[in-house]
Specification:
3 domains, 609 residues, Creatine Amidinohydrolase, alpha+beta, Creatine Amidinohydrolase, Chain A, domain 1
Length: 609
């Protein structure tokens, strides 16, 4: 393959030994400012999962490169807080002599601050990097310690980060109606009408994905996610004030936005929020996603503040028919590329020369060869043997492992296409799997099938379906610690709310047009990991002959599931029918789309059982 990796890096970007001198520099800066401590979240001004290099403050300070975490720094001690996905990674990357490694769930930062901050001490935070809810949790923690919480006018860490990257200037492009399915003016009018429910004059939009969806634009400011970093105010009449650097505009953007959007410089944002207050406007703000800084500006101007969910989240999550068809098209294209890869690895892996990086590069190359790939939807999780037991493993040149016979290989990956975002995981046996591997794989598959076949009434939430995916594992005393499903955007974020399927009691009901992942798994630490992931769309309610109409899932992903790992004796007749029907769809979808060798391999890989 001639393609060289363009969309992901396998470099070791941090080094644990960097922690000590950088921590010392930050402490000196805090002391100069009269601060006893400071908190460093893994976030930017928009509270997104994917952040530009400039915002990778947590990684710079601690060497931890995971997508979620927080560090709290005092003059005499410091701690990093991570969730269960990153326990092993944090131990490998972070200098334990400098940072205590704690659970983000069991001992969250506010509890640690309340316990360790000296009485009367000043504790600093950057109000741009914490949500309204987050700031309130910090205030309560510092108050319990008898200290004083201080909003820093500028970030102390930035003051000692000598080579901090510049703010991104990624180009903004048009998302045409062929893909969006609804014009921006229609969306703005539709969403603006919902503001009457809270009696708001305007809504503050701080999530770039909301703004991208509302205005039918896409950007390139952050890795793998087509966001234009920006802020906006949606007024009750449907007019939008957009705060963005015009240097990001490509030709035609002004015309595309039209008269219903006023483009303003980012430097005008603070004054504009304060002016809303002086005009006695009632402004809606989402305390779970908006930075505390924004609330401070609204209060300073005297605005009436209404706390409510971002009004774009739900309509964005419910894809229209054009978006759904685009996503289907993207999955056929992506599934063909993945099937070519699976055929290739089935032939090459037993030879013993492949490693995790080589496999990830190969899959990326197959996606590039579609001619439609805009980016990966995230850095591929290419995990051999025991690395597969780390659900969010990221291969680097240092961690790169050979794909060996007698092991399981897990590949979790996806693509960004103009017509859709994909996310798929397959677990592959290299050689002959053990009896235990087949048992665990089949139990994961049973959970996957149970969720895929589910029927559920309107008003059902993801938490109510989560047990379907876990039941067979629970029968054997097994489980997994991550969620079963997350929302996915339409050429937007691969992780999209408000819907999900997990143990967490999210009170948002699943609705037609929502896309979620179906990804149960099992992980034996130090040995192997198993995950089977397809994306599914929620269908309109249908009459099945009972008293109530029921919703179902449409499986979107189309790629073979490794039959070598399946213990057929554990499957019910209905489960075998589902798997055979699914594999028949895979064969049909890719007929004529792949080369002869792959077509022959697919016929065998999707044979009826």
């Amino acid at each position: 393959m001639l393609h060289q990796t363009a969309f992901q890096s396998f470099a070791d970007t941090t080094e644990p030994s960097q922690g000590a001198p950088r921590l010392a520099a930050l402490r000196a800066e805090l002391k100069r400012r009269g601060l006893e401590g400071f908190i460093v979240p893994r976030s930017d001004e928009h509270q997104g999962e994917y952040v530009p290099p400039r915002a990778e403050r947590l990684s710079w300070l601690t060497a931890f490169t995971g997508s979620a975490g927080v560090a709290a720094v005092l003059q005499v001690k410091a701690a990093i807080f991570i969730d269960g996905r990153y326990t092993v990674q944090a131990h490998e990357q972070v200098d334990a002599q400098q940072f205590e490694n704690l659970s983000l769930i069991d001992q969250p930062p506010p509890d640690w601050i309340a316990l360790n901050l000296p009485k009367g001490a000043k504790f600093g935070y950057d109000p741009w990097l914490h949500t309204v809810h987050g700031v309130e949790a910090l205030q309560a923690a510092v108050a319990r310690a008898g200290g004083l919480l201080v909003a820093c006018a500028d970030n102390p860490l930035d003051a000692v980060w000598d080579d901090q990257p510049a703010a991104p200037l990624g180009a903004i492009a048009i998302q045409t109606l062929d893909f969006a399915g609804e014009g921006s003016s229609s969306k703005r009018e539709r969403v603006a009408k919902t503001l009457s429910e809270t009696n708001a004059d305007a809504a503050l939009l701080t999530l770039p994905e909301s703004i991208a969806w509302l205005l039918n634009i896409r950007g390139s400011d952050v890795p793998h996610t087509p966001f234009p970093l920006s802020f906006a105010v949606l007024n009750a009449d449907g007019h939008v004030d957009l705060f963005v650097d015009r240097r990001k505009f490509t030709p035609g953007i002004d015309t595309w936005l039209g008269n219903g959007v006023t483009v303003r410089a980012p430097e005008e944002f603070a004054a504009h929020l304060e002016s809303l207050g002086r005009a006695k406007k009632r402004v809606q703000i989402d305390p779970a996603t908006a930075a505390g800084w924004a609330l401070d500006r609204l209060h300073k101007g005297g605005a009436g503040v209404i706390r409510a969910t971002d009004p774009c989240l739900l309509p964005k999550a419910c894809k229209n028919s054009t978006e759904l068809q685009g996503v289907r098209n993207a999955h056929v294209r992506d599934g063909a590329a993945l099937s070519r890869f699976l055929c290739w690895i089935a032939k090459e892996a037993p030879k013993g020369h492949l490693d995790e990086i080589a496999a990830a590069r190969a899959l990326e190359a197959y996606r590039v060869e579609t001619g439609a790939l805009k980016d990966l939807s995230f850095g591929s999780i290419s995990a051999a043997g025991p690395n597969g037991a780390l659900p969010h493993y990221r291969v680097t040149k240092k961690s790169n492992r050979k794909i060996e016979t007698g092991t399981l290989y897990l590949i979790d990956s996806g693509g960004q296409y103009l017509d859709g975002t994909t996310d798929v995981t397959r677990t592959i046996a290299i050689g002959t799997p053990t009896t235990e591997m087949k048992d665990r794989f089949t139990r994961v598959l049973k959970g996957h099938i149970a969720l895929a076949r589910a029927r559920f009434p309107e008003g059902t939430m993801g938490v109510q379906l989560d047990t379907l995916a876990r039941s067979s594992l629970w029968d054997a005393g097994l489980d997994y610690d991550h969620g079963t499903g997350h929302g996915v955007g339409a050429y937007l974020s691969v992780h999209e709310g408000p819907q999900n399927i997990s143990k967490r009691p999210i009170t948002v009901a699943l609705r037609p047009g929502m896309i979620v992942s179906n990804e149960p798994g099992y992980y034996k630490v130090g040995h192997y990991g198993i995950r089977i992931e397809n994306l599914v769309a929620v269908n309109e309610p249908k009459d099945f002959g009972g008293d109530r109409k029921m919703m179902t899932f449409e499986t979107l992903t189309l790629a073979p599931i490794d039959l070598a790992c399946v213990d057929v004796s554990l499957l019910t007749a209905d489960e075998r029918v589902w798997l055979n029907d699914y594999h028949a769809r895979v064969r049909q979808a890719h007929a004529g789309r792949v080369d002869g060798e792959t077509a022959t391999w697919i016929d065998q890989a999707t044979r009826a059982i």
